[in-house]
Amino acid sequence: MLNKKDLDKLKEKYENDKNNILRQRMLNKVKLVDLIQDQNTELNYDFNININTHGITDQKSSGRCWIFAALNILREKLIEKCNLDNFEISESYIAYYDKLERFNILLERLINYKNENKNLYDRSVSNLLEKGIIDGGYFTQFADLVNKYGVVPKNVFPESFSSSNTYEINQILSRLLRKFYLELEDEIKKIDDLKNNYMEQAYTIMTNIYGIPPEIFNFEYTDKSGEYHITKNITPKEFYDRYIGIDLKNNYIELSSYQDERIKYNNVYVKKDSSRISESNDYRTLNVSPQDFKSLIIKQIKSLEPVYIYCSTTSKRIDGVWIDLMERYGDTFDFNLKLDNNSVQKTNGLTNTHCMLITGVNIIDEKPIKWKIENSWGNEYGNKGYCVASDNWINNYVYRIVINKKYLSNDQLNILKKNPILIENWDAKF
């Protein structure tokens, strides 16, 4: 128990350190972040390996970074193929089907849990209802959505207010999901009728605020030479296959780098109930050593292919520069707050996960010094929307990446043939 005697000892020790008095005079008048900036937080934007991309998109007040980052890869293929200055694929189109598919599969999981005699005190049920409908997702889930629904140009299915500001729609759908569970628990209606009724409600809500996604459209554009083109009556799937054509499901794999007493390197892990579309597979992750993790990022960037990353924003960023601020906060108080990536994950410190693209790196004497980041927070942030990350930040806060399988070694490809090890859905370490 913390008593008066304990507090007096702490106070005496504090007051005997003159540095604490000086710190107090400074720290109670300014933002901490303003005290830890220096020339290293003003990294320039010159890179000796640089992937030219075509401007910055803006996810606005939504958690759709995982969709924006993936579509920013796809649009580069279309821009090249059609000889355009710029182009944007509809993020709202993918988000619309993501929410419908997510709502549907969560209903199905609640039904399955009921059939397994699981109730609110079961972690699977409570975790599902606690999360409800949220924005976040994984590249693998994005690939499933594109494989099923294709994509469309943004001007064919533009943003609505609620697609860019998702708090309210998430709250509404989450409430609907919880109401479904209560009715399911009471067994008032036949399960099939109950599920159909709630899917109809979700569809009505979503379509009222997003609009009806096109099933067929005309693709019109004028290329950089001024020539007009039109492809009539094309479906979203045909559009994807004709103008982008990347095999997302088979050509790419998600990689992590984490190890403890239970999870080991050089294994494939699958997260239970992580699929987004009914009857699709739960997502798989190849877990590799930190050395292999980093070398694969460099290998893909050197081949001028962007790397899709998941990072923890536990460490904040300063004016578009991403550095390990926690370490600097520790310096301010003369304490050690540094944790490496594995330690952050081990202690469930992966907070506010964000997806971006690495589109460049500066390598000097065979050592990466800084990295170019393409974000989706609009062009007012950083250097017209692009950011710089220190190498230390990449090491400590990027915990998951998407890699084209062609860059994997033969040993790593053979690991993918192993039977995956099951991880529970709520496991925050993976």
Query: What is the residue-averaged pLDDT?
Result: 92
The proportion of residues in beta strands is 15-25%
The name of the CATH architecture of the largest domain is Alpha-Beta Complex
The computed structural class is alpha+beta
**Could you describe the largest sheet, including whether it forms a barrel?**
12 strands, mixed
Provide the CATH topology of the largest domain: Cathepsin B, Chain A
Would you identify the CATH H-level superfamily of the largest domain?
Cysteine proteinases
Mind explaining what this structure looks like?
This protein has 430 residues and is an alpha+beta fold. The protein folds into 2 domains: 39-52 and 248-423, Alpha-Beta Complex (Cathepsin B, Chain A); 65-243, Cysteine proteinases (Cathepsin B, Chain A, Alpha-Beta Complex). Helix content is 43%, strand content 17%. It is built from 17 helices and 14 strands.
Write a concise synopsis of the structure shown:
The chain is of the alpha+beta class and 430 residues long. The chain has two domains: 39-52 and 248-423, Cysteine proteinases (Cathepsin B, Chain A), CATH 3.90.70.10; 65-243, Alpha-Beta Complex (Cathepsin B, Chain A).
Give the secondary structure arrangement, pairings included.
Blueprint: H1 4-16, H2 18-27, H3 32-35, E1 49-50, H4 65-82, H5 91-115, H6 123-131, H7 139-149, H8 161-164, H9 167-186, H10 191-210, E2 217-222, E3 228-234, H11 236-243, H12 248-251, E4 252-256, E5 267-271, E6 284-287, H13 290-302, E7 307-312, E8 317-318, E9 321-322, H14 325-333, H15 341-346, E10 353-364, E11 367-374, E12 386-390, H16 391-397, E13 398-404, H17 410-415, E14 421-423
Parallel strand pairs: 4-6, 5-14, 9-12
Antiparallel strand pairs: 1-10, 2-3, 4-13, 5-6, 7-10, 7-13, 8-9, 10-11, 11-12
Helix pairs in contact: 5-9, 5-10, 9-10
